[in-house]
Amino acid sequence: MNNTTNMSDETSPSFSRNLHFNLLYNSTFRAAVLEALKLLEQQNLDPIEQNEMPARKRPYKPPFVYQKTGFQFANISFDNQIKELRFTMSELERLSKLLFNEEQFKLWFSKSRLKVDPTTALAIVCSRLAKPSRLTDFCNVTGHSKSWVGEVFNTTIRYLFARFERLLYWDYIRLTPEKLASFAKVIEGSGTERSNIFGFIDGTSREICRPTPNVINQQEVYNEHKKCHCLVYQGITTPDGLLVHLYGPLSGNTHVMKVYLQSNIAQVIRQMAKAPDGTQLKIYGDKDYAHISDDVMEAQIMKPREENLTDAQFFVNRIISGERTCIEWSWGQITQFFSYLSCSRNQQLGTSLIGCQFWVSALLTNCLLCIHGKSKASNKFQSDLPTVEEYLASVDQLNENYKFDEFLISNYMEKN
Question: Smaller CB count within 10 Å for the chain: N or C?
Answer without folding.
Answer: N
